[in-house]
What does this fold into?
Amino acid sequence: MSTIFSDALISPAPHPEIPPEQRIFEPFIGGWDLVVSWYRPDGTVERRLDGEWHFARVLEGRAIQDVWIVPPRGQRALVSETYEYGTSLRFYEAAVQGWRSAWVGPQHGVVHVFVARRIGEEVRLETTLPDGQRMRWRFLDIATDSFTWLNERETDGEWRLTQDFAARRQRR
It folds into this structure.
């Protein structure tokens, strides 16, 4: 069953209707090892955990899906508290000149909906939370084998770092 499902879901290439300059999530295709850090309001590290993140083209190459796991699968049975095992699905929409993205975190009952665009050298996803607070996720320092991901929230007109990921491409 899982092979039938994955064969129907996963795509080998981006769909030709997505303009090459809009294929902003292509650099992330594959598997990544993470070091995930959470920050207190004063900017100090609250905690740090390992994780894994996997990206694939899906739905005829019209979308990019990821699976984000903290702690990684190999450590989950060894710890008393796990953080999340969630997914995002993103697709390009020409009408907004960007990507619609939805993050689903079932362990914490979270769903966030974003619009993503390339801003300079970064990929930025932006949303407004139900309480009116703005949040953004940014992919920075994007290289073949590494990138940095930031989760920031706007507080009193300033962006504050709440979480970051240091990602390294897996060598498996």
